[in-house]
Amino acid sequence: MLRKWIISIILNAVAIIAVAELFDAVKIEHFGYALIAAFILSILNVIVKPIILIFTLPITIFTLGLFLFVINAITLMLAQWMMGDTFIIDGFGWAILAALIISLLNTLLERLVKDIAK
What we know:
The protein is mostly helical. It is built from five helices and two strands; from the N terminus they run H-E-H-H-H-E-H. The protein has a two-stranded antiparallel sheet with strand order 1-2. Helix 2 (31-55) crosses helix 4 and helix 4 packs across helix 5. The two termini are 17 Å apart.
């Protein structure tokens, strides 16, 4: 379980670096800070995200789950706020786009790792 979590953090850091390279509006100093950001995101996803999800459940249901992208952007903005100047996102719109791309990249990378590990 710990091994899976560590692999997930590394893959998330790779996705964060990829998004930072893809968009000028997302900046991160280097891979070490991306690992820290991925770790913070994993903690926020376990603690804060469920609380936000409970409070926003009606709008999430009404939008057929699309509001989850906003929730992911909120957790990403919280992580960048905690990181200070080492991880910068230039606005909430960019955070939504970054959260979407990070989610897609995480899904692809986890499938690749799972296929390689077989």
